[in-house]
Amino acid sequence: MTTPKQIRLGYLYEPHGSHPSGWRHAGGRHNPFAAAEIVALARLAEAGKFDFFAIGDRLTADATDAANPSLAARTEPFTTASFLATKTSRIGLLVTANASYYEPYNLARLTASLDHVTHGRAVWNVATGATAPAAKNYSQSEADAAAHYGRAGEAIDVIRELWDSWEDGAFIRDKATGAFVDGDKIHPINHQGQLFSVKGPLNVARPPQGQLVLAHEAGTPLANELAGREADIVLSRPLDIAAGKALRDELRQAATAQGRDPDALWVLVEITPIVAETDAAAEALLAELNGLGGTISGAVIVGGAERIADQLAAWVSAGAADGFVVRSATLPDQLNQFVERVIPELQRRGLARTEYRAATLRENLELPAVPNRLVA
Description:
By secondary structure, this protein is an alpha/beta fold. It has a single domain (8-163, 210-364), classed as Alpha-Beta Barrel (TIM Barrel), CATH 3.20.20.30. Helix content is 36%, strand content 16%. The chain has helices at 35-47, 77-85, 104-117, 132-137, 145-163, 221-230, 241-257, 279-292, 305-317, 333-348, 361-364, and strands at residues 8-13, 52-55, 92-98, 122-127, 171-174, 179-181, 191-192, 197-198, 213-217, 233-236, 266-275, 299-303, 323-326. The strands form three sheets. An eight-stranded parallel β-barrel has the order 1-2-3-4-9-10-11-13, surrounded by eight helices. A two-stranded antiparallel ribbon has the order 5-6. α1 (35-47) links the parallel β1 (8-13) and β2. The longest helix has 19 residues, at 145-163. The protein starts with 7 loop residues before the first strand and ends in a 12-residue tail after the last helix.
């Protein structure tokens, strides 16, 4: 008997849910500025044995956005994830940080520090900026996508070197001799590139994962190229299985072209499951939400636990996805429904884990350890 392939699961935290009118529904009762409520969601995702809890970011505020005014404000990802690290123990914590609006040294410090305080559970979702409103908030002029991706590519190179600038075991702390660190195990990187000049070393020890897990959103040629070269997790938004398979095939080919093992690249589809006790009840819930105004972007699946599990399994068996980034139309109700109804059904079928297998996210994702590139 063939063992079924387990589905990778991330959860995307959206402060007011993925439906534009989710906050208006009776199931929408989440306050994104109440830390205890964010903690409750992260713990619920951890109880469902999700691989990671993803915290997105927006660099602008537009309360006049009639389509979805709830997107105007939220807490900052690194602060949020650091707090969640103290309230969770096993689930990965994904932070979105835009390489266009950080210096690489700052990003290396933030990400390495997050990996330490989470004990190896951090993910950096590499975002690239390409909008005039964001540029105006950061004293920049608008640049095209190629410029943003060029900056992101070099920034990743610098950050990876900075993560490796302290060898494991560099700290001696010998009280008898007074030797605190082994200077031979600390390496300046002396990066001189087109955009950045960074001496190093980093002032944070090498992260527990060595190299953090990297994520990137695919969908454009530049994004797919960067994902194939650098990402461990690829976030994708195909609307159906056929589009998903074509994109996943392209991403795996991009990884192979970079000399990488395509099986070490997890392609996760963003999906909003509308979950209820029965298929009819789920369909009625979606109609009710749409009746309040707006529709959900991206792929949507509707039904009771068995129908939802059937459809998730169909994506994976068709080669359209390695797993999913789950979105909730309303918070907290729809996350509750998914964890209480769909997760047990997936576990019953052998498609979802029942326990975390290791301490770090890299190990839980079955990604290989990455040797320190600065060690001879």
